[in-house]
Design goal:
3 domains, Ribonucleotide Reductase Protein R1, domain 1, Rossmann fold, 290 residues, single chain, 5-stranded mixed barrel, alpha/beta, globular, OB fold (Dihydrolipoamide Acetyltransferase, E2P)
């Protein structure tokens, strides 16, 4: 019995990396009876059936640091949130949802502003400053030219990292640059409808070096804030946190109440008005329904 990491699974066939060798494995039936199954990122024990053919059986799933249902993966340590400056246009509402997702799941987020060649420097710096000022790491890239890729690589060391963002923002191009090979599907933009096409549809881990893996994932952009109790939403806007216990009302929503410390911080320029407005929109359109 030896221990490896699940790289991918298709139709109950799992690719498990063990000592830099990839084995095709099935999973013991006991996992189905216990309503659990291996997913990408799982640390597992396997019994090798045929060393020559590189086949085996997964016998144990180790305790997970975290687990995600959509897309199915485990033990994620950080997430790169890729935002396209153009083609498709910047979607900061989606970015804020994904930051909430990361904070809620205790996964370190890094913001990647991609396609910087398509936008003027003033707008790029404006968006970058909004997020760096509240404590997030922001990396500016031009994936097709490889600009910013080395800086991004440094952040991936000793992590299992997922890339997330709308179709066509350049996730797969960035991963191809990082791995220095064309092994992922490109999320191209159709000139007709400006929407992504030929996008990645499965979770698969790619090894960069020892203990460093990246995953191109299709599902994190669908994160639904309804999973969060509406009373908890504000604390996932990290710049709100210093003010949350200073409001007059303990159950303050930070929207309609008077003597709200968060609203006062917005008025004083200590909290971005844009971020605050997106908080209000999320509260009103999504969270308050549940």
């Amino acid at each position: 019995m030896q221990t490896g990491i699940v790289l991918s699974n298709i139709s109950d066939l799992y690719k498990v990396e063990l000592n830099n060798i990839v084995y095709d494995c099935n999973a013991r039936g006991k996992f189905k009876s216990n309503d659990i199954s291996p997913v990408s990122g799982d640390i597992v024990d396997i019994d090798i059936i045929n060393d020559e053919k590189k086949t085996g059986v997964i016998t144990k799933i180790h305790d997970r640091k975290n687990y995600f249902k959509r897309p199915k993966m485990a033990n994620l340590s950080q997430i790169i949130l890729v935002v396209s400056m153009k083609m498709p246009k910047v979607d900061l509402e989606l970015l804020d949802k994904q930051l909430i997702f990361a904070e809620y799941n205790h996964v370190k987020p890094i913001i990647c502003l991609n396609k910087i060649d398509l936008e003027n420097e003033e707008k790029i710096e404006y968006i970058s400053n909004i997020y760096t000022q509240i404590g997030y790491k922001v990396i500016k890239t031009n994936a097709k030219e490889g600009i910013g890729v080395e800086e991004l690589k440094k952040e991936l060391q000793n992590n299992i990292t997922a890339f997330s963002g709308n179709s066509g923002v350049g996730k797969s191009t960035l991963i191809n640059n990082i791995l220095e090979t064309d092994i992922t599907l490109e999320g191209e933009i159709s000139n007709k409808n400006k929407r992504g096409k030929n996008t990645t549809t499965q979770v698969k881990l790619y090894k960069i070096d020892e203990n460093s893996y990246v995953a191109d994932t299709p599902g994190f952009s669908t994160f639904d804030v309804k999973e969060i109790d509406k009373k908890e939403l504000a604390k996932y806007f990290i710049e709100f946190r210093p003010y949350l216990n200073k409001c007059e009302y303990g159950d303050c929503s930070h929207i309609k109440e008077e003597k709200c410390a968060v609203k006062e911080a917005v008025q004083q320029g200590k909290i971005s008005k844009e971020r605050y407005d997106r908080y209000c929109k999320l509260w009103n359109e999504y969270v308050s329904k549940y």
